[in-house]
Amino acid sequence: MPSTQQVLVGVLHCQHDTYCKEFTSQCISCSDKPDKKxxxxxxxxxxxxxxxxxxxxxxxxxxxETIKVHDIQRHQLEHIHYTKEPITAGxxxxxxxxxxxxxxxxxxxxxxxxxxxxxEQAPYELPTVGWCMKEKTSYVELDTVGKRxxxxxxxxQVERRLNDLILQALPITxxxxxxxxxxxxxxxxxxxxxxxxxxxxxxxxxxxxCCGTHVAHLGHLHAAKILHTETIRGGNTRLYFVxxxxxxxxxxxxxxxxxxxxxxxxxxxxxxxxxxxRLQLQLRTQTKMVKKWQAQVASYAVKDxxxxxxxxxxxxxxxxxxxxxxxxxxxxxxxxxxxxxxxDSQKAILLASGGDGQQGGGMLMVLAANDITLKKLAAKVTExxxxxxxGGARGRxxxxxxxxxxIEKLAxxxxx
Length: 416
Ligand SMILES: [Zn+2]
Hints:
By secondary structure, the protein is of the alpha+beta class. The protein has seven helices and 18 strands. The chain folds into three domains: 13-97, Elongation Factor Tu (Ef-tu), domain 3, CATH 2.40.30; 103-261, Threonyl-tRNA Synthetase, Chain A, domain 2 (2-Layer Sandwich), CATH 3.30.980; 297-412, Diaminopimelate Epimerase, Chain A, domain 1, CATH 3.10.310.40. It has helices at 13-16, 99-120, 152-167, 245-265, 272-311, 324-337, 371-384, and strands at residues 22-30, 40-44, 61-63, 67-75, 78-83, 92-97, 128-133, 138-142, 172-178, 196-202, 206-209, 224-231, 237-243, 314-319, 348-354, 362-368, 389-393, 396-401. The structure holds zinc ion (ZN). Zinc ion is lined by residues 54, 109, 113, 210, 212.
């Protein structure tokens, strides 16, 4: 007889055996069609894949070796698996757990219980009001309103205490009992009604209500590292941490990054900051210098434009240094300042920048005193330059071209 009832969330196989990596259970139902995101919703009798909850993300895994389980969610006390392929109701499903992800989650979650327990006790007495497991790090949110925050020295002591307790490899056990009708712990989600009360005990240290998957003893946390704090709105504090494998992976990433920086900056890690500060100072000085030069070059360019307009309808400035829009804006301001295009002028100015010796693409700006003249020159520009396009009105057209070749021809245009 196929079973029609699910084992309820609270007493799932994954919740009493964190270390079970393979398991077979019967499929009770599967949605007829995939949902909008392309997922079938599969209900199994029991599962070794943890449904997201209590700050712990869901597991991932496979059904029958090949069908990926992307997500598992709790709906009240039911558990639903999300797959991209349907599963036949009544069939036996062999589940395989993504163990690395699970063990990482269990390490961070048990680590969080340990960290919160240590911080709640004297001499710190900082209660945890929430926590969050992120991809690389996690944090506990501590109620620190009106309290003195531990000093760096004290955070170091907390870290030492965590690592001492990890060395003691104290057992972590899970207890479940039926919920009394009158009992309703505040920390339970609103839609968790009925079912069991589940507590996680770290021997001699802590007992907390929790739905998550935990390591068997503190030794499986390997090591703890406290990272940094962050003050958030309302005066609470986030304390970031990593446990176990994350600590090893993160050290590996940081070490590799440090080696790359060592190569790029040609100084040892102890001088990275000095080196970057020096480079930033250089950059600021050079940026200032470039701006001064741009202003100087622009003042010559404007004189040249004025000279061109005396004998031509169109004046062209080509800026090979690729100053782009910031340079155009300096020029535009100077053109206005010098009154090169008075209200009754029928002439126009074309600014071009980039182009890599005119063969490559570049930025364009057309300026005129009225929109008829502006459109005339803009039309000629798009006609003459390869891949040129743009738009604008009220005397200012901006665009770009894939090549600036032939731009000099535009200087001889008649706009009448
Ligand atoms: Zn928990």
